[in-house]
Specification:
The complex is a heterodimer of chains A (114) and B (108). Chain A is mostly beta strands. Chain A contains no helices and eleven strands. In chain A, the strands form two sheets. In chain A, strands 2, 4, 5, 6, 9, 10 and 11 form a seven-stranded mixed β-sheet that branches. In chain A, strands 1-3-8-7 form a four-stranded antiparallel β-sheet, with no helix packed on it. In chain A, a hairpin with a 5-residue loop joins strand 4 and strand 5. Chain A is globular, with a radius of gyration of 13 Å. In chain B, a hairpin with a 6-residue loop joins strand 4 and strand 5. Chain B is globular and about 35 Å long. The interface between A and B is medium-sized, with 21 and 24 residues.
Chain lengths: 114, 108
C-alpha cells in the first residue's frame, strides 16, 4: 500500500512537499506516479519517476514541481513550488506499472488560497 | 497529447442491467495501452482493466474491456449495487498519460 502525507492550506506562490510512503514493495524498483483531482473534477496525471530515475511531468506543472524518491525510506516525494489556485486538488500517489496504476493511496488534500 | 472522450456523461440504469461505457481517443492508442478505473465518492480510483481487456487482480468477471485503435468499451454485464460509481479510462501508449473525463453510472 501507499500513504500520502504533507497536504494542507498554502498561499499562492508558496511551496509544499508531499510524501508517499510505500509498504509491500520497493519504490526504487517500480515506476511511481502522482495523480491529482481538483474538487468535483476528473483525474489528471501529474508526474512519474521511473525505476531508473528518469522523471516526467505534465505541462501544467513542469518547472514548478519536482518528483524524487528516498530508497532508504521507501518514499516518493513531490516538491511543489510556485503554487497556484489551480493546483488545489486531492493528490494521489500510485504505483505505476509502466503506464497504468494498480496501487493507489487515499490521497492528501492541497488547498492553495489566500 | 491524446485526448480521451468518454460517453455518455451519465448512465442511469437499474441493478441487474447491462452497462456499456465508451472511451474514444483522438488518435490511435498503441498496443491497446488503455486502462479503466472505478471511483466511488471519497475514495481513490481502483484499477479494473489494463491493456484494454485484461482484468486487474480481484476484479469480478462481470467487468470486461474491449476495443483497439481509437475506440474502447467497458462493459458491466449485470450491475450490482456496489457498481454505481464514476468510471475513467486512461491511455498510457503515448506521453503524457491522459484520462477521460469520466462516466457516472447512477441508479435509475
Amino acid at each position: 500500500q501507499v500513504v500520502e502525507t504533507g497536504g494542507g492550506l498554502i498561499q499562492p506562490g508558496g511551496s509544499l512537499r508531499l510524501s508517499c510512503a510505500a509498504s509491500g514493495f520497493f519504490v526504487s524498483s517500480n515506476y511511481m506516479s502522482w495523480v491529482r483531482q481538483a474538487p468535483g473534477k476528473g483525474l489528471e496525471w501529474v508526474s512519474v519517476i521511473y525505476s531508473a530515475g528518469s522523471t516526467y511531468y505534465a505541462d501544467s506543472v513542469k518547472g514548478r514541481f519536482t518528483i524524487s524518491r528516498d530508497k532508504s525510506k521507501n518514499t516518493v516525494f513531490l516538491q511543489m513550488n510556485s503554487l497556484r489556485a489551480e493546483d488545489t486538488a486531492m493528490y494521489y500517489c500510485a504505483r505505476d506499472l509502466a503506464g497504468y496504476m494498480d496501487v493507489w493511496g487515499k490521497g492528501t488534500t492541497v488547498t492553495v488560497s489566500s | 497529447e491524446i485526448v480521451l472522450t468518454q460517453s455518455p456523461g451519465t448512465l442511469s440504469l437499474s441493478p441487474g442491467e447491462r452497462a456499456t461505457l465508451s472511451c474514444r481517443a483522438s488518435q490511435s492508442i498503441s498496443s491497446s495501452f488503455l486502462a479503466w478505473y472505478q471511483q466511488k465518492p471519497g475514495q481513490a480510483p481502483r484499477l479494473l482493466i489494463y491493456g484494454a481487456s485484461s482484468s486487474a487482480t480481484g476484479i469480478p468477471d462481470r467487468f470486461s474491456g474491449s476495443g483497439s485503435g481509437t475506440d474502447f468499451t467497458l462493459t458491466i454485464s449485470r450491475l450490482e449495487p456496489e457498481d454505481f460509481a464514476v468510471y475513467y479510462c486512461q491511455q498510457y501508449g503515448s506521453s503524457p498519460r491522459t484520462f477521460g473525463q469520466g462516466t457516472k453510472v447512477e441508479i435509475k
